[in-house]
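Obj: model holo form, ligand = zinc ion.
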Amino acid sequence: MAVAWSLLLRGGTLIDGTGTPRRRADVAVEGERVVAVAPSLAGAADRVLDVAGRVVAPGFIDMHSHSDLFYFGCPSAESKIRQGVTTEVVGMCSFSQAPLRPDQHALVEGWVGGIGMTPDLKWETFGQYLDALRSVRPSVNVVHLVGHGALRIAAMGFEARPAGADDLRAMERLLGDAMDAGAWGFSTGLVYPPSAYANTQELIALARSMRSRHGFYFSHVRGESAMLLDSIAEAIRIGDEAGVPAQIAHVKASGRENWSKLEGALGLIDDARRRGVDVAGDVYPYNAGSTKMDNLMPAWAHEGGMAKLLERLTDRAARKRITDECLVAGERWGTVSQGGVGFDQIFIAACRRRELEGLNLAQLASQTGRAPAETLMDLLLEEKCAVGMVSFSQSLENVAKVLAHPALMIGSDSIPLFEGEGDKPGKPHPRCYGTFPRVLSEYARERKLFSLETAVHKMSGMPAQRLGLRDRGVVREGAVADLAVFDAATVKDESTYPDPHRYPSGIPYVIVNGRVAVDGGRLVGPGAGRVLAPPR
Ligand SMILES: [Zn+2]
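Output (holo C-alpha cells):
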C-alpha cells in the first residue's frame, strides 16, 4: 500500500534549526509529526506544498513576549504567526493575569490594563486561567510563566516593602500551584512595581522553592541604565544561589551615557557561564524599547497601585519630587529603567486620543506650551495612565553585539497582537510585526552579522534547547511539525516606526502542530496552538 502523508513539503532547502549547514530536503508530515526528511521523497500526500527555491525551517520560538495579555482579544495572533513564529514564551517582566484574588480585580486591571487591551479577569487560579486560554484556541503554542507581580499582589497587595515570612510562604504556595497547573517558572520586572519592591533575598527564596519542579527564572533586571552591571549580577546570583536556570530579558544598555557598559554586562554573563551558572538571555533587533508610559514615573510614586499614582500626579509636591529625581540636565528624562532619554526620543504609541499617537513628548510640549516634564505628567493624569510609548534609548552597534553573542537568542518583547487588514489603532513598536523576519533580512542577509543557519538557530533550536522542548525547534524525523517556510532572498520586515501595521513579506507558509496556519501568505484558521506542558 502506498504511503499517504498528510503533508509533503517538496523541493525546499532545509535549515534544520541545529545551526548545521543547509541541505536539499523534502519534509513529510503525518498528523502532528515530521515523519520523513530526505533529499527526495517519493510517497503521496493529501497535500503537497511546492517549496522549491525556499527555505524550510523550524517554526520560530519567541523567547520573550507579552502576547498573553492579548490572546483573549486576538487569538489568531496574526501579527505574530505571520513572522513564522509557532511558539511564544509569555508571562514576562513580572506580568501575568493570574493568579488573581477576587477582591483585587480593580488593582490588577490598573496594573496590566491600559495598553490597548481590556482585561476580562474571570478566574482565580493559574490553572483556571490556562483553561480559559485553551478555550480561545490561540494559533501559536504557548510556554507560560507566572508573573512575580501577580504573585506579590495576591500575597501582599501593592505594598512598597520587603516580603515578610508569611508573605513569602504565600507567594511560594501560589507559585507551586501555578507550576502544578502548567507554569514553567516565574518572571520578574524589577523596574515595574510591585515586582520592583522585592529585594534579592525574596527572589532567591522564591526561585529556590521551584528548584524541585525545575522552574525557570526569567529576569527583567533591576536597571538597564546606570545600574546595569549590578542588575545583571543580581539576576545571575539569583539563578546561581537558587540553583535554577536564569534567563536575562532583552539584554541592553539604556541611555547614551551607559552604552559603554554593555561589554561589561556581556562579560558578566560569560564569566558566570564559565563558572557553570546556567544563565542565558534574549534580545530584540531594534534600538527602541516599548512599555507603558507610566513606567517613566519612579517606583515610589506607584505604591498602592494606579489610583494612588494618579492621586500623586495631582499633588504639586509629589510632581516636584518626581521632576527633581528624573529630569537630567534640564532636557532629558532619566529612570533606572531607561537612563536619560531626550523628550524628542519618547513617542506616544497608544492613546485614547488617537491624534496624539506618533507624536513625541517634545512635540506635544510645544503644542501645549508646557514644559516637557509637566506635559508628560499631565498626559498620564488625563489618560489615567493608559498610554503606551516607544522610546529610543539604545545604540544600534550594541544591538548588533548582543544579537551576535553566542548565548543570546531572539525574543521580541512585543506587547499587542493585531489581526486582519485595514486601519488599526496606535503606532506600536514594529517588533510586533517584524522581529523574526528582521533578524533574517537585516542582520543575516544584509549586514551578514551571522549566517542564515545561525539566525534560524537563535530563533528555534537554541530556545528549544534552553527550555527543554525536546520535540520542537528542530526539523527531524519524530519532531513536532512546527515549520516556517521563507524566501531567503526576499524575506523582510515591512513594519516601520511611522507605519507599523505592516505584515512581513517572503513567508508564505507557517505550520503549527502539523496544520497549515499560514497558507500562501494568508492566515487560515482555526488556531492549532497548544498550551505546552513543562518537561518534568
Ligand atoms: Zn521587560
